[in-house]
Amino acid sequence: MTDQRTTVLGYPRIGSDRELKKAVEAYWAGRLDAAGLERAGRELRERTWSELRDAGLSDIPSNTFSFYDQMLDTSVMVGAVPARFAGLDGLDRYFAMARGARGIAPLEMTKWFDTNYHYLVPEVGPQTRFRLTWDKPLTEYGQARELGIETRPVLIGPLTYLLLAKSADPAFAPLRLLDDLLDVYAELLERLATAGVVEVQLDEPALAADRSAEELRALARAYEHLGGLSHRPRLMVATYFGEIGAALPVLAATRVEAVGLDFVAGPGNLAAVASTPGMAAKSVVAGVVNGRNVWRTELPAALSTCAALLGLAGEVVISTSCSLMHVPLDAERETAVPEGLAFARQKVAEVVAIGRAMREGPGAAVPAVPVRAPVDGRMRARLEALGEGTARAAHAERAVIQRASLGLPPLPTTTIGSFPQTDAVRRARADLREGRIDRAGYEAAMRAEIDSVIALQEDIGLDVLVHGEPERNDMVQYFAEQLDGYAATEHGWVQSYGTRCVRPPILFGDVARPEPMTVGWAVYAQSRTGRPVKGMLTGPVTMLAWSFVREDQPLSETARQVALALRDEIRDLEAAGIRIIQVDEPALRELLPLRVAGHAAYLAWAVAAFRLATSGVSDSTQIHTHMCYSEFGEIIGAIGDLDADVTSVEAARSGMELLEDLRAAGYTRGIGPGVYDIHSPRVPEADEIERALRLAVRAVEPERLWVNPDCGLKTRGYAETEASLRNMVAAARKVRAL
């Protein structure tokens, strides 16, 4: 029997102890020079290649590493660098595109399909002239070869790159640049072939979404062109996050040698292969190990899929469903988590085990450990009795009551929730965890930080205050650690964007709230000021999206369980005198199915869960929500259906474009468009914020308009935070006076 090929589509790049984060942030702080940063990156890459080789994979990917983001890398590689960065070069230009620089705005950032990973949106237009300006794929291939490891370079596919790009001119479609971009890809492929590369992976996840006839024609043109090159490596086009649909016959008709398909998120891909002429001559890279969740693979089912493919494809290569960058590195490091988990290292072992079973028979595979989810019968009975919750008065009626109760000025100023997490705050949390201080000492430290944050906000002149969330390690993890049915990891870090890493909790059983989670902190903060303080919670959809969730029941049912726990918390906050409560749902757009056919059902249960959580309060209590870094135009109707009194949204990097969508949709509730970008360290000038507010006032009546940053301030420093907020308040007062 021939050898069975095995691979993964990508691998975590941050290191086992977040070495990438530490190196990049040391470079930003001036503690590490460029040579030191490059050395740290090379060490991480070499460690990954060696680990995958030693694990027994036959095919190892390269060029999956990035100091910030692979879409950003691609923009730099093909010369798609906006003119405002022309005065910079090297790493200074690279990181300015990601984070901005003095007087220079960064690229827009948004979610990578339906994941919690953020990518930098390419900016292109009629003036864009692509050219190959960075040989990163060649360099990394050469580095691996020095170790004696042959790799498969991974590139963002040209179609996906252009479909995710934006132009400042709304009349210009980036796809018009396809032929020019293909010339650059052709040059790169020829250079890779000359260097000895046997196969290249071109990632086209955009094919898992609905594609127009024009876009499918562009797909055909792209791969007919690249497949027709006389001197090139083998081409493997990989799609993931769903079913490939009408794109499969298009690819099958080209000269690409292999197609990567996700059989976890796209079970219909098996029937698609069976019904597509030409697939018998292709290799199918079978994504049967889930690259996005942490439960062990049901190996008999995965083997069954692979066996079915044997008669349909020319070759079957065992793989993960997508890159493993979406899961933590190693479950073996964890001590307080449920059985049956597989992180990246364990998933590589599963891929290898399936490959061995394909060679030697099913007996070579180890069965998955079943997970027995804890069941809370009382919670389930409460949900059944409650139904969809209770209705509040119409928003227009509530708005009148709330204006009289709160007494806020037009264009009230506030923040999204978190304030900078200082070294002292993090140290206090670590000291409590390690037993160096007791609970009383920790709470005293947190109260002192809240005192400082409240005093600062009063001095700046904000109208609605927050307590700053010093006690919270993460907006999801904090709640998960206090809810039944969740487990937290110690080392389960996953990259969210750049150097921002999170530890998604594991939702494995029925969710219930044993006791209040935020009430004490909110009440203490409110006692320190006469201005309203917002209670701050994370919404049910985001609690699911940013966790690794159980797979033994529908997401809609799990969302209702989380919503019930939040409902109890909201009612307790109201009873304690908190008059404004913010329930953040930044992931509402993120979980939207990639294909339109699934939108209505998803939005129905997502909206119902939010309303279940928030509908148990009086009409005088003002409910806020917050959303960020996603394209929200597709869910404008659902944003209104949430029935929140005020919605704050990311808007600075996208030039307030969402406001026009809201106006066109007839949105009549309060809106707080982010007036400056918190993911950049630059301090916006007051006149810059004033211009943004003037744009906002054109689309929204002043009595409905709130003024706030794009997102929470946790990752920023106090100096830039204070300066930015003072400028924001000054701009709001100036526009308010007009």
UniProtKB/TrEMBL annotation:
Q: Name one Pfam family in it.
A: Meth_synt_2
Q: What is this protein called?
A: 5-methyltetrahydropteroyltriglutamate--homocysteine methyltransferase
Question: Active site annotated at which positions?
Answer: 679
| Functional description taken from the UniProt entry | Catalyzes the transfer of a methyl group from 5-methyltetrahydrofolate to homocysteine resulting in methionine formation.
Where do the Cobalamin-independent methionine synthase MetE N-terminal domain residues begin and end?
Answer: 6-309
Reactions that this protein is recorded to catalyse: 5-methyltetrahydropteroyltri-L-glutamate + L-homocysteine = tetrahydropteroyltri-L-glutamate + L-methionine
In this chain, Zn(2+) is annotated as bound at 626, 628, 650, 711
How is the cofactor bound, in the record's words? Binds 2 Zn(2+) ions per subunit.
Entry keywords, A to Z: Amino-acid biosynthesis, Metal-binding, Methionine biosynthesis, Methyltransferase, Repeat, Transferase, Zinc
Kindly list the positions annotated as binding 5-methyltetrahydropteroyltri-L-glutamate.
18-21, 111, 116, 500-501, 546, 590
Q: At which positions is Zn(2+) 1 bound? A: 626, 628, 641, 650, 711
Please list the cofactors this protein needs. Zn(2+)
Q: Name one GO biological process term.
A: methionine biosynthetic process
Binding residues annotated for L-methionine, in chain numbering: 416-418, 469, 584
Domain Cobalamin-independent methionine synthase MetE C-terminal/archaeal: from-to ranges: 411-733
Q: Tell me the pathway.
A: Amino-acid biosynthesis; L-methionine biosynthesis via de novo pathway; L-methionine from L-homocysteine (MetE route): step 1/1
